[in-house]
Design a protein that fits this description.
13-stranded mixed sheet; about 15% helix; about 425 residues; Trefoil (Acidic Fibroblast Growth Factor, subunit A); Rossmann fold
Length: about 425
């Protein structure tokens, strides 16, 4: 009965966030096969993850141009070739048999793709399989974990990798338990860290004895010598007494974008659209669009709220600068950007267009939540973009102290 309940909950969870996240046309993308390995026998949180991952990834394949198969038979790795399956996933473990381990290494060195979730990297004896733990994943031994499972704000460190092109500077993950390692991946020239825990997440974890309060913690990365990605999510929150999952690994639409785009890159089935797509920015509180008054082109043109009308005066794009910040370019003149007047750090300072000089009052940290809405925080003042003018057209946008209100929440897209 419990197993049936888990399966039902997993299927329901998979329907909460759409799987259809790829911006490619799956009919045009080259089809490929994903083969996932799992045990599904240890730790209720990992079992719950597997039970929702299999139907979710099956649907993802149907909508994004790949076929998905999962198996408990790890011996299939022994003679697996990239022609048989272009991508291998480890859902909740890694192979333990010598033949399967050797076969997996041959598969990877022959050009096969790999995506590893959460516990697939766990070990307290990395030298038992040094190629996998020290060379391939490059993280060495497990050191600590956060508890209980929580969301984390993740800072995207690489915006040019095919798996991260659709990610904002920062986003809120789905719930997971988080691992740390005894090797600093930043010191390994073969490793490209894709995202890490943003310090705003600290303290991370609900148990004071198992919290992270400071430090550097990579969450997603790739080894540049192989076609691989590891992601440290894949552990649901659980009511262990009732054997009931309390969260879904697929609850974050932004995180799902990363997963889909990772698989497309690994399988050669397509890539997401390039960074720089022109988009509208719509305020959550009043439904009005960010708009350049009168479609102006001059310095000082007021950035206002206005009824969405599909014109280019309401088209902007977010372009990464440095340290997790971005400039917001204007479609009618991409050399002009959203600029805090002055530059002032005071509340209610107006926003206008100005020539891009790369100054800090022209840079914004974009943080996207699991609901798809974003806050834009000015680099120079640490204050948030806000539409504080009610529902009237023509009211200038301003910066104010961040408070999490709907007036400071925007949909970019």
């Amino acid at each position: 009965m419990a197993r049936k309940l888990l399966a039902l909950l997993a299927m329901l969870a998979a329907t909460l966030v759409p799987v259809s996240l790829s911006a490619t046309n799956s009919a045009q993308a080259a089809p490929f096969k994903v083969l996932a390995f799992y045990n599904g026998t240890w730790d209720a949180a990992h079992i719950a993850f597997v039970n929702e991952a299999n139907p979710w990834l099956t649907r993802a394949g149907q909508e994004n141009g790949f076929t998905y198969e999962s198996t408990r038979d790890w011996n299939r790795l022994t003679n697996l070739t990239p022609a048989q399956a272009q991508v291998v996933i480890f859902l909740d473990d890694a192979p333990t048999g010598a033949a399967a381990r050797s076969g997996f290494q041959r598969y990877i060195e022959a050009g096969g793709g790999f995506f590893g979730f959460h516990v697939s990297a766990f070990t307290q004896n990395a030298n038992e399989w040094p190629w996998y733990h020290n060379t391939f994943l490059a993280k060495g031994n497990f050191v600590s974990n956060t508890w209980g499972p929580t969301v984390a704000t993740l800072k995207v460190e690489t915006r040019t990798h095919p798996s991260t092109l659709r990610l904002p500077d920062r986003f809120v993950s789905a719930v997971s338990e988080w691992y740390s390692w005894d090797r600093d991946l930043r010191q390994n020239s073969n490793i490209q860290v894709l995202a890490s825990v943003d310090p705003v997440s600290f303290p991370l974890g609900t148990d004071p004895n198992q919290q992270w309060r400071s430090g550097y913690y990579p969450i997603m990365w790739t080894n540049k010598n192989y076609k691989m990605i590891y992601a440290n999510f894949g552990h649901n929150a659980m009511d262990y007494a009732a054997n009931r999952p309390l969260s879904s690994t697929f609850a974050s639409a932004t995180q799902n974008n990363f997963l889909i785009d990772s698989l497309l890159w690994l399988g050669g089935g397509g890539t997401p659209p390039p960074q720089g797509e022109w988009k509208t920015i719509t305020n959550r509180g009043n439904g009005k669009c960010v708009d350049a008054a009168g479609a102006g082109l001059t310095n000082g043109t007021v950035i206002q709220q206005y009824a969405c009308n599909g014109t280019t005066a309401q088209n902007f794009r977010v372009v990464a600068t440095t340290d997790g910040f971005s400039r917001v370019e204007y479609r009618n003149d991409p050399n002009k950007v959203l600029d805090v007047s002055g530059p002032s750090t005071a509340d209610n300072t107006g926003i206008h267009l100005w020539d891009d000089f790369g100054s800090t009052n022209q840079q914004w940290r974009v943080t996207t939540g699991s609901d798809g809405y974003s806050t834009l925080t000015a680099r120079h003042s640490n204050k948030c973009l806000a539409a504080n003018g009610g529902s009237a057209d023509g009211v200038q946008l301003v910066q104010v102290t961040c408070n999490g209100s709907a007036a400071q929440s925007f949909k970019i897209g």
